[in-house]
Design a protein that fits this description.
Layout lengths: L2 E5 L4 E2 L5 E11 L3 E11 L3 E9 L8 H4 L1 E12 L15 E11 L2 E11 L4 E9 L10 E11 L1 H7 L18 E10 L2 E9 L4 E9 L8 E12 H5 L4 E13 L7 E13 L2 E13 L4
Antiparallel strand pairs: 1-3, 2-3, 3-4, 4-5, 5-6, 6-7, 7-8, 8-9, 9-10, 10-11, 11-12, 12-13, 13-14, 14-15, 15-16, 16-17
Length: 294
């Protein structure tokens, strides 16, 4: 059987707590798909516009999150992140985002293409993303891969958007970076992150290629990889007024992100490093940092 209808206004309450104030769409149902064309959704704090199609075998409907395929596009849509907490309880309740994207996949293996997001503060994101176990993150390890063409934000914004995931795992001294813009690739898998980015910050320019593990406890987080700094104000980052700008190319392996917790092997070169208002040049660096001693 095939059913088609024009829905001019539909309201309901989801058992999980989402209240649909208005739903408008050209709806079509078949045994293998449901199509919501010219879809307009309005909740208390969100407005979505686009097209949405669910593709499935009838026996797969009881495994909706893993087997029903979503094929959708949304434009100029606004979501209050607090309303998404019924699906993925990690968002900041007071934050609003506006986005455009194409969506393909199941809820537990979801791909966002041509994703553009703007927050109600300073955050802007443009890229491609894939999310694994987005719905089942409490019982299965959450994974994400991202090819980021541009991400502009600051520490306080990211903390508001994902207060537990980022607020508890990003060192607070990174707030000194101010507004930053970066591009590159990242992979998040459980307690591990692979990050390869170029970034321009208010402290200077950074290029890094790092593997991070044990990120659930930031003081014990471990890392290894390469970092390049260009006219970067290291003193402001680590709250050491004797240090100034540095231009360097380092390979690092260790743990800790604050000077008090830092334990790291560092090798590399410094083209320039300002210490006590004197600029040292053409340095070779090899050593271990612990207890604020190199």
């Amino acid at each position: 059987p095939e059913v088609s209808t024009q829905i001019n206004g539909l309201s309901f309450s989801d058992p999980r707590g989402v209240k649909m104030h208005s739903l408008q769409t050209s709806f079509k149902y078949t045994l293998s798909s449901m199509l919501f064309q010219n879809l307009k959704i309005q909740t208390m704090n969100s407005n979505l516009e686009g097209n949405l199609k669910f593709k499935y075998k009838r026996e797969d409907l009881k495994y909706f999150s893993d087997k029903v395929v979503l094929d959708a596009n949304f434009t100029n849509s606004t979501i209050n992140l607090g309303e998404l907490n019924v699906f993925f309880p990690e968002f900041g309740a007071s934050e609003n985002i506006t986005f455009d994207t194409n969506i393909l996949g199941t809820l537990n293996n979801l791909e966002l293409k041509n994703f553009k997001l703007k927050s109600n503060r300073t955050t802007f994101i443009n890229g491609q993303f894939n999310f694994i176990n987005l719905i089942d993150s409490k019982s299965k390890p959450f994974e994400m891969t991202g090819q980021i063409e541009r991400l502009t934000s600051k520490y306080s914004d990211l903390k508001r958007i994902l207060p537990r995931i980022l607020g508890e795992n990003i060192p607070s001294n990174l707030s000194t970076l101010g507004v930053f813009t970066l591009k590159g690739n990242t992979e998040i898998s459980g307690p591990s992150i692979v990050a390869n980015f170029e970034a321009l910050t208010e402290l200077g320019a950074v290029v890094f290629d790092l593997n991070l593990s044990k990120i659930k406890s930031i003081d014990d987080a471990q890392y290894q990889g390469a970092i390049q700094l260009d006219n970067f104000d290291l003193g402001l980052l680590i709250d050491q007024p004797n240090f100034g700008q540095i231009t360097s190319d380092f390979v690092i392996q260790g743990k800790g992100f604050t000077l008090e917790k830092l334990q790291s092997n560092i090798t590399g070169t410094c083209d320039a490093f300002e210490v006590n208002n004197y600029i040292y040049k053409n340095l070779n660096i090899e050593g271990f940092v612990k207890n604020k001693i190199f």
